[in-house]
Fold each of these.
Amino acid sequence: MSLPQLDDRACPDPCAGPCSGCPDRIVCRCLKVTEGTIVEAIATLGLRTVKEVRAATGAGDGCTCCHQQIRAYLEVDAPAAAPLAAAG
């Protein structure tokens, strides 16, 4: 399910409001890691891969069902790749 589809459904977690953008929403159910924790780690630590998110937050270290959603956060929140230096 893509993030836009998630926006259109009722949030199954106890926080109020739609699922997308709720920092208290649990993304990794195995380890109880929230959206806010993941997004903050991506933005502040410059994470670019699921492996880096796993190492920094623990999210995705269980059943791996949240990996697709973590990738979606990375697409939106990860820093742009640094330009390659000109050879010369």
Note: The chain has one domain: 3-77.
Amino acid sequence: MKMKTGLMICFTVMLLAGYSVTAADLNSLRGPVSIDETKLASDMKKVQQDTAPIRRNYVQQPPLIPHSIRDYNITLHNNKCLNCHSWKNYVEYGATKISQTHFTDSFGIDLADVSPRRYFCHQCHVTQSDAQPLIENDFREVDSLSR
């Protein structure tokens, strides 16, 4: 609902400012394919294979996953990530252990097991692939901001 309201405000401001938007001005991530055409899926991106931990680009960035997670299903009763990254198993598997922050609930209480709000790893942690950015950006790593 908020998205629709935001779009309506944006279009209203554009109309009031005298701008007009035509179909030629809009670019889709699908490319020059009309909405009623079916476009073949892009090739699958190659995910990095088992590397050392990946350097973080900004403060508080969740660590990136340096290996494939294909078929790593996370359900209410099973989390394959915990097989290697739990405090009990990380040394045996040579994996990074889960941060202590993952054991704190939303009220700041420390728990004996991973907090439900931190249980679904893929909502913050992602793998890296050979994909190019979808749009141009001028992102700079955090270290470059202090120079």
Note: The two ends are 42 Å apart (CA to CA).
